[in-house]
């Protein structure tokens, strides 16, 4: 049976979307990931671009509400929050059933990046690569 993972951040527009995509791509036979936010926003266009660079299309993804998932009675093996330290106090909590554990991984928020398009994309790529690495380590440890 697949382990169900919920990745959560404030807007579900960047970090949690990348984590969900990598988890489903890399662990598709062992894991089933979803993502949600406290205040669902709009998908970050730079995140869509940098994910396309590694062959993952998230352009059709919706930004989900953690409260909608809770109301639907969903349960998860793991809940993983991916907010940075600056947003830690606003990082959402999923009040539903979490069986194996709640984890926090701190990643910088791509929506806070400044500079020209090239600089923003470079910083977003760094976060993307950090998230992928964290997902791979997590899967190794669980399996």
Q: So how many helices?
A: 4
Q: What is the chains' assembly state?
A: single chain
At the fourth level of CATH, the homologous superfamily is: Response regulator
State mean pLDDT (0 to 100 scale).
Answer: 89
Helix content: 25-40%
Tell me the strand order in the biggest sheet. Answer: 2-1-3-4
- What share of residues are in beta strands? 15-25%
CA-based shape: globular
Return the structural class. alpha/beta
Second rung of CATH, namely the architecture: 3-Layer(aba) Sandwich
What are the secondary-structure elements, in order, as H or E? EHEHHEEH
Summarize the structure in words.
It is a single chain. With 143 residues, the chain is of the alpha/beta class. The protein has a single domain (3-142), classed as Response regulator (Rossmann fold, 3-Layer(aba) Sandwich). 37% of the residues lie in helices and 19% in strands. It is built from four helices and four strands. Strands 2-1-3-4 form a four-stranded parallel β-sheet. Helix 1 packs across helix 4 and helix 2 (45-53) packs across helix 4. The longest helix is centred in the C-terminal third of the chain and has 26 residues, at 117-142. The chain is globular.
């Amino acid at each position: 049976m697949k382990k169900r993972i919920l990745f959560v951040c404030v807007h579900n527009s960047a970090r949690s979307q990348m984590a969900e995509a990598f988890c489903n791509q890399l662990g598709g036979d062992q894991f089933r990931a979803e993502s949600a936010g406290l205040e669902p926003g709009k998908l970050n266009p730079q995140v869509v671009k940098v994910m396309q660079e590694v062959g993952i299309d998230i352009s059709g993804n919706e930004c989900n509400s953690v409260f909608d998932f809770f109301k639907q009675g969903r349960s998860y093996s793991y809940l993983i929050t991916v907010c940075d330290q600056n947003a830690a106090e606003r990082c959402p909590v999923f009040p539903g059933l979490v069986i194996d554990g709640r984890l926090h991984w701190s990643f910088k928020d791509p929506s806070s990046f400044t500079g020209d398009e090239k600089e923003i994309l470079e910083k977003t790529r760094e976060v993307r690569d950090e998230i992928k690495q964290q997902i791979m380590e997590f899967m190794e440890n669980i399996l």
